Amino acid sequence: MRDGWVEWLRGPRLGWLLAALVVLLVLVVGRSWISERLVPDPRMNRQLEQAQAALVAGRLSASDGSGARELFESVLASDPDQMRAKQGLLAVREAAIARAQAALAAHKLGQASENLALAAALSAPQVQLQPLQARLRDLQEASSDTKGLLARAISPGVDEDEALALYRQILAVDADNPAAIEGRDLLLSSRLVRAEKLFDAGKVSEARAIVEAVIAEDPAHTDLPPLRARLGEALAALQARQARELEQAARDERAGSYDRAAKRYLGFSEGDPGYGQAREGLERLAARMARRAQRQAADFQFRRAQASLEKARLWNPGSPGIAAAERSMQLSRQAQARLIRPANRSERARLPTLLAEAEQAIGRGDFITPPGESAWDKLRVAAAIAPRSKDVARLERELTAASRKCFDQALDAGQLKRAQSCLEAYVVQEASPAADQARRRMAERWLAYADERIGASDFAEAEIALAHVRHWQPAHPGLAGAITRLRTARGASPKR
Questions:
Q1: DSSP H helices in 365-478
Q2: What's residue 35's pLDDT?
Q3: What's the pLDDT tens digit per position in 97-154?
Q4: If residue 305 lies in a helix (H) or strand (E), which one and from where to where?
Q5: Structural domain of 45
Q6: 126: in domain
Q7: Is 475 helix (H, G, I), strand (E, B) or coil?
Q8: Domain boundary among 105, 121, 142
Q9: In whole angstroms, what is the distance from residue 394 CA to residue 407 CA?
Q10: Do residues 205 and 320 both lie within one domain?
Q11: Residue 39 pLDDT exceeds 50
């Protein structure tokens, strides 16, 4: 039988048998390798997924083993060649360095120290670590006096503002300092309690100032959300109230009840929703009062003129018409003084010279400036010396005609400042529909110039141009729109 098997194996059958045995051995031995390499262990896959999820969630390391670092290292402990785990640890290291940089920028020294230690444990390059470690040491040295600052912040006699400044100084170098955070929170909570009481008392502006100061100090303060909501409600109610007040003030203004309108405008405080419109209303009223003062001074009604001027100063101290009205009043007082007493011989002797100088000033175009040398100034003195002089009356007519012609020519040539000077001389000489029309034309040109300057982002010049519009025609229908355009353009312009 045995001899039969030997005989059967001889020849090609033995080769085939050996080949089959080799294939079988390869399949048995390679099964484990294929399973490990081409079909990963499901448990390892789960660990990799958990590690990646921890990395995405920002859990770079955790003592309980749930951090990305620990999970990736667990995978590598089972399979040192696992490429995804190696790449994951590199990602953890880079994330730790990025966190350390952010923590240093925010002066959060504890977080910076932890993340730098993690990056170092993961063999981060020294070229990345050393600058960050040096910055951490500098901040730690700067924060070494925090105990002294904390002691000063809680010492007797230190007021809230000083204590808050000390806490701010500590947090500027150590943003995670728990004692400083707690002290600041207590102070801010105390302020918010005061804000709530002010809301209860209807003092919205004062409460708003406190809430906004707390927001600037710590926008994440836990007591802020209800106060913020209450501030929003109070501001909405205030805005509705002020809109009604502005509407009534505008009606008073149109009706000529300037004192009532001004009283309403003056009720607005800086920061109120309608404050800007109230200021514009006061600017218009001040310009009206300044022109009224000029007319009253020209009629020698000095007490009334002075009262009108005082209102203009109260409503808008920077109104460009105030200086002109003061000058008119001064010259009118001088003229009245000469009218009250008869001109003496020396004054009468000056009359031909004054008339000649006035005529020369008209020829030069010095209608109302320079002060004391202008045609208007010379003729005021001459009229006081000889109020019924035909030559004075003739030159006054010439001054009116010349200043009107000068205004038209300068306006046509686009010389706005020259046109304005000529118009000042014209309107002070004549109150008529023609003068009112000239005022409107001047306002129109300044308005067009303001729009041009807004388009060129020259906001300072646009503001000056709009002030001229208010001076010449405070109720111009296009003024409000131009002011809005200027504000919008200013808000949209890049900060420099």
A1: 375-385, 390-412, 416-429, 433-455, 459-472
A2: 45
A3: 898 888 877 767 778 888 888 888 888 888 888 888 888 777 766 655 677 777 777 7
A4: helix 302-315
A5: 16-142
A6: yes
A7: coil
A8: 142
A9: 20
A10: no
A11: no
